[in-house]
């Protein structure tokens, strides 16, 4: 199905605890199936005292700035957070209306002549149990820029120009190449299971030094659910806490730490996220995925999925489909019906490449997650296969298993 135009895209398969194949800086190299690592290693989290995770702004100044793509290269999302989170007992959610959501942008740093406004929200993570602490977020802003030129560098400043000190520095990102069979992003970084460990920092530094045009993050983002609400963490939650706690706790400030650490990448390179099991984060009233759904912008409405869990977008000659391994995927469900419609709309003469990503792999020999996603595979594989899906990227298994053609 066609060839990548221009330079070969550089696909970085990286997981926090895995590293074996030749450096992608030396690549591209021929794909090989490498043996599973027996030793998963021991990843150590960045502590809250690390300057890279601390709040570096004051007042209502934006932080955790991030760019995401919309369904087409003529549009993009800019997201950020103002105000600090609260952690403790009687947390009082901030009023999202306190700070405006404005992005000023243009083709030069000194010419931010266009303006877009968007929405703001806060989310809380509440535990109605004795001894557990609650969390409520800073104000999370999402603004969609429209009418952009594809393949073009845009400079932007986000915040609320009406409040002194409440706008960001000028950042810049590049839109995806125009949709069509002859233009492609040069480099796409694909990561999963990132976390916020010292291994994350080496993975992210490596990724950044490759200067990707786009980052796909295939779920398992901050691993805030490896912590108790009192901020005590462990690398094996179920081993340490399962019996002593009424609910699987999380320590939501880890999400803010993650957003701060990632800002140098996310403010300049569009990143598309899809949920993993670590994003479930159950809380009061069986509510799940609150942090994931609130913190990231997704082209859900633009790709007609109306769900943060699955969506699609075009970048040059590639149609990307991000699927939910942790939302209903049965043939009678909404995700499946959306996928049918989305696939039917793809014109392979316009986007010759059809690429999908989700969290849990359908094919893996790794013992720890063996056949976990089998039901999803049974429901969706036939449909994806019938449309000639070219590439699947997944995460979940913190090991390296590039695989050959698998569908039987
Ligand atoms: C956290 O919020 C829940 C729900 O409002 C409440 O029941 C619980 O008491 C709160 N926790 C503390 C420590 O105040
Ligand atoms: C992860 O980081 C630790 C240091 O914290 C290092 O010793 C280890 O080799 C790293 N593991 C991998 C797989 O890179
Ligand atoms: C948090 O709670 C756990 C379990 O009750 C306890 O072992 C740990 O010492 C606590 N940590 C802090 C910082 O209070
Ligand atoms: C939460 O889920 C449990 C088990 O699935 C169920 O028994 C309970 O009724 C649910 N609670 C609410 C408030 O929905």
UniProtKB/TrEMBL annotation:
It is an enzyme of class 3 (hydrolase). The keyword Endoplasmic reticulum does not apply. InterPro entries: Calcineurin-like_PHP (IPR004843), Metallo-depent_PP-like (IPR029052), MPP_PAP (IPR041792), PAPs-like (IPR039331), PAPs_N (IPR015914), Purple_acid_Pase-like_N (IPR008963). Keywords: Glycoprotein, Hydrolase, Signal. Residues 187-398 form the Calcineurin-like phosphoesterase domain. The keyword Ribosomal protein does not apply. It catalyses: a phosphate monoester + H2O = an alcohol + phosphate. Its EC number is 3.1.3.2. Belongs to the metallophosphoesterase superfamily. Purple acid phosphatase family. This is Purple acid phosphatase.
């Amino acid at each position: 199905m066609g060839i990548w135009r221009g330079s070969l895209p550089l696909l970085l398969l990286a997981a926090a605890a895995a590293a074996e194949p030749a450096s992608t800086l030396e690549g591209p190299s021929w794909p090989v199936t490498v043996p599973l690592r027996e030793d998963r290693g021991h990843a150590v989290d960045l502590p809250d005292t690390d300057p890279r995770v601390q709040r570096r702004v004051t007042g209502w100044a934006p932080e955790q700035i991030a760019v995401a793509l919309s369904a087409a290269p003529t549009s993009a999302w800019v997201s950020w957070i103002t105000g600090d989170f609260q952690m403790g007992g009687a947390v009082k959610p901030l009023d999202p209306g306190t700070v405006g959501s404005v992005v000023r942008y243009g083709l030069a740093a000194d010419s931010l002549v266009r303006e877009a406004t968007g929405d703001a929200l806060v989310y809380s993570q509440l535990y109605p149990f004795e001894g557990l602490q609650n969390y409520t977020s800073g104000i999370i802003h999402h603004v969609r820029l429209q009418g952009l030129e594809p393949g073009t560098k845009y400079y932007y400043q986000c915040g609320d120009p009406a409040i002194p000190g409440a706008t960001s520095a000028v950042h810049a990102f590049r839109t995806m190449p125009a949709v069509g069979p002859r233009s492609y992003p040069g480099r796409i970084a694909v990561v999963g299971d990132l976390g916020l460990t010292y291994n994350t920092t080496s993975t992210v530094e490596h990724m950044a030094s490759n200067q990707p045009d786009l980052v796909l993050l295939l779920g398992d983002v901050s691993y805030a659910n490896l912590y108790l609400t009192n901020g005590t963490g462990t690398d094996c939650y179920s081993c340490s806490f399962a019996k002593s706690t009424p609910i699987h706790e999380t320590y939501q400030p880890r999400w803010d730490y993650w957003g701060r650490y990632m800002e140098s990448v996310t403010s300049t390179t569009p990143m598309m996220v899809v949920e993993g099991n670590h994003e479930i984060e159950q809380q009061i009233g069986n509510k799940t995925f609150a942090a994931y759904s609130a913190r990231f912008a997704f082209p859900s409405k633009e790709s007609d999925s109306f769900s943060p869990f699955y969506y699609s977008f075009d970048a040059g000659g590639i149609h990307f489909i991000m699927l939910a391994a942790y939302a209903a995927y049965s043939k009678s469900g909404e995700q499946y019906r959306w996928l049918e419609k989305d696939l039917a709309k793809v014109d392979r003469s316009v986007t010759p490449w059809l690429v999908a990503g989700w969290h849990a792999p359908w094919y893996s020999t790794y013992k720890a997650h063996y056949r976990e996603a089998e039901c999803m595979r049974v429901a969706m594989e036939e449909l994806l296969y019938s449309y000639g899906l070219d590439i699947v990227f997944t995460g979940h298994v913190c090991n390296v298993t590039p695989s050959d053609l698998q569908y039987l």
